[in-house]
Specification:
The chain is an alpha/beta fold. It is built from seven helices and ten strands.
């Protein structure tokens, strides 16, 4: 499957922007994003312009209508048209919503998927089939959510270490942060967090931010010179918490 590594800032390719972009794409724009549904049937000057932009910058595709969580069968004929479009413009990265939006016709809304084991298997099978047809891994747009039983706790002492062999005389100067939640099989679990990790989970919990948005906010708060390294740390943490059942 194609390499989907991409860094930098992108711009949504809107038709009203085309005249200005034809005069020169600013250096600050590293890639362009579009919805294939808006371009699949375009010909003439529109198609020629898209070919020009594909030569100037990588293009990212963001789908609007796969309805990966929906009850209706996957539209495989449409997926094959999308694949042809992605191949034509050398588009390696294709994103979609983890939701459903059609059932015997488009509903023009992004509807939630039930939190059930049956839904997990249903959606996973549809994602696998989508990737087989597109011959690409797809990226699903969504926001992480804390396990509904999860609680963030902050203490002045490392309470997880206190015992007969460790009785601190006073706080060590750094807040101790913990995530407490009920995991699989209803077992109570504790995860020790550093302050940055705790802040990430606070932003996800309180402000409903995506992982990327939360890490961008933290990078601003820390005046971070190298935000990319911070993003990698946040991504790895969320992956670990998902495996542990603390984040969905």
């Amino acid at each position: 499957m194609p390499d989907i590594t991409l860094h930098g800032a992108g711009l949504g390719l809107r038709r009203e922007l085309i005249p200005a972009l034809r005069t020169g794409i600013p250096d600050a724009i590293d890639f362009l994003e579009l919805a294939p549904e808006n371009w699949l049937d375009m010909g003439g000057a529109w198609r020629k312009n898209l070919g020009y932009f594909a030569e100037q910058r990588p293009i990212v595709a963001h789908g609007l209508s796969l309805s990966l969580g929906g009850p209706a069968p996957l539209d495989e004929a449409f997926l094959r048209r999308v694949k042809q479009f992605l191949d034509e413009y050398d588009i390696a990265l294709y994103t979609e919503h983890l939701s459903w939006c059609s059932d015997e016709g488009h509903l023009y809304d992004l509807l939630p998927i039930p939190f059930t084991e049956e839904a997990v298997h249903h959606v996973a099978a549809r994602i696998r089939r989508t990737q087989e047809i597109l011959e690409r891994r797809i990226l699903l747009a969504g926001r992480p959510e804390l396990n509904p039983t999860a609680r963030l706790a902050h203490y002045r002492y490392p309470v997880h270490r206190i015992g007969p062999q460790f009785e601190p005389a006073g706080p060590d100067g750094q807040a101790c942060c913990y995530l407490v939640y009920r995991g699989r099989h209803d077992t109570v679990r504790f995860i020790t967090l550093n302050p940055v990790s705790a802040r990430l989970l606070e932003l996800i919990r309180d402000d409903s931010l995506s992982g990327y948005e939360a890490m961008t906010q933290i990078a601003r708060e820390l005046d971070q010179d190298d935000p990319e390294s911070l993003f990698e740390t946040g991504r790895a943490l969320l992956d670990t918490l998902r495996e542990a059942g603390a984040v969905y």
